[in-house]
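Let us practice reading a record.
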Amino acid sequence: MTGIVIVTWNSGEVIRRCLDACLALPEVEVVVVDNNSADNTVPEVLTHGGVRLIRNHENRGFAGGVNQGLQVLSHPAVLLLNPDAVPLEGVAELAAAALRPGIGAAGGKLVGPDGLPQTGFHVRGFPTPSVLAAEVLGLNRLFPGNRWNRAYRPATEHLAEAAVDQPAGAFLMLNRSVWQQVNGFDEDFHPVWFEDVDYCRRIRDLGYTILYSPSAIAEHRGGHSASRLAWTDRQLFWYLSLLRYAQKHFSRAGARLIATALILACIPRTILGILFGRGVRTVSVYSRVVWAAWHCLRRAGPVERVAASSSREEKRARQYQS
């Protein structure tokens, strides 16, 4: 039997199709963790008998929701599924792949409503300091063929099962015992972004292989919850999560490269925001981003951050391994 965890936030528009497809699968247990939705998500979930609902009265973030869902399940393999994703085939095979010796997780193939592979959610390499610096400076968008971006976003699609860095988190089968070993998803990535990249990086650092299995397929709308965020929140959450990732996984020099690139990138974006009539919001957001980046440059290297969070990590370890 396979567990399925779906974290929702204002997902009423898409959750029905997702749950209908999940409940049509053989031998699954579905858990929905709702992060204080303000729309009809909860009433819609309650119409689906057999679905277990965990209703949060605050937004615990994506990572927090994932951890809550896995805590109440005991299945060896648990599918992490976005509410705007509809599993089509290969879920049982994906679970079997995730439970092979030495495998930490297994990702499936995402297709759009037109049935074509979603290149925007394709398998990626782990980001390097150069990749993320080019990302925040807009170089990857202006010059998509640069060598850093080619390594980060491979142009070729895997046609057969392969070991990869990070498959899309929207349709990712987790090996529950490995999830316990790494103390769950890191809830410091709050409320969203980079938590799945961090998770894949940590299980790879432990020596586990991550598989991509294109025989497992889900239809994916893409960006549903993110589109419901205000522009200011999207900017702030993404950039602060990026800084957290850099502090956690890069050397001090790498983290400082990201922070410097981020400060430089905020200058023209602030000017453009003012010119296009978003002055107050733009200044408010990017001043907070610049302050966080400056703090990273001056004080918050990765060693200090790990030391400062050690007690929180120990508490999380006890919680997820109990």
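A brief commentary: The longest helix spans residues 252-275.
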